[in-house]
Write a structure and sequence with these properties.
By secondary structure, this protein is mostly helical. Strands 1-2 form a two-stranded antiparallel sheet. A hairpin with a 4-residue loop joins β1 and β2. The longest helix is centred in the C-terminal third of the chain and has 37 residues.
C-alpha cells in the first residue's frame, strides 16, 4: 500500500471516525445475521407444519394393496422421521446457497465501494482539510 493510499485512508478514517473497511464489514455482518434469522424462521416454520401438509403422507404400495401404518408420537400424531431429516437437509442446502451468494455479491460490493465511493481522488487528497483543522 502506498503512502498516498495510507494518507487517504487516514483522512477518511478521521472524517468518518471509523475505517471505511469497518463500515463495509458491519454491513456484511448485518446481512449475514438477517440471513441466519430468516433461515432459522424457515426451519422452525417447516418443522412446525404437519408433515402431510408438506407432502409427506401414508405411503401405500398400490401393487400389493397394502398400507403402511406409521408410529405415533406422544400426542397421537403420526411420526415422520424422514420429514425432519429432509427438512434439515434442505434448510442446510438453502443456507449454504445463500451464504455463497451473499459472499460473492458482497465481495463485489466491497470492491466497488472502496474504489468508487469511499475514496479521495489523488488530485484532491492534498487539498482536503477537515473542518476541525480550519482556523477560526
Amino acid at each position: 500500500m502506498s503512502s498516498s493510499s495510507n494518507s487517504k485512508d487516514a483522512l477518511l478514517t478521521e472524517h468518518f471516525r471509523y475505517t471505511p473497511l469497518s463500515l463495509i464489514d458491519d454491513i456484511i455482518n448485518t446481512v449475514n445475521a438477517i440471513i441466519y434469522r430468516a433461515i432459522q424462521a424457515i426451519e422452525n416454520g417447516l418443522l412446525s407444519t404437519p408433515p402431510p401438509v408438506l407432502g409427506f403422507g401414508v405411503s401405500d404400495d398400490t401393487s400389493s394393496g397394502s398400507l403402511r401404518i406409521r408410529d405415533a408420537d406422544g400426542d397421537g400424531n403420526e411420526d415422520f422421521p424422514e420429514a425432519r431429516e429432509e427438512i434439515e437437509n434442505g434448510v442446510h442446502q438453502l443456507e449454504t446457497l445463500l451464504e455463497a451468494t451473499v459472499d460473492k455479491t458482497f465481495d463485489r460490493f466491497e470492491i466497488y465501494t472502496l474504489r468508487n465511493l469511499l475514496t479521495v481522488p489523488d488530485e484532491l487528497a492534498g487539498w482536503m482539510r477537515l473542518g476541525h483543522y480550519e482556523a477560526c
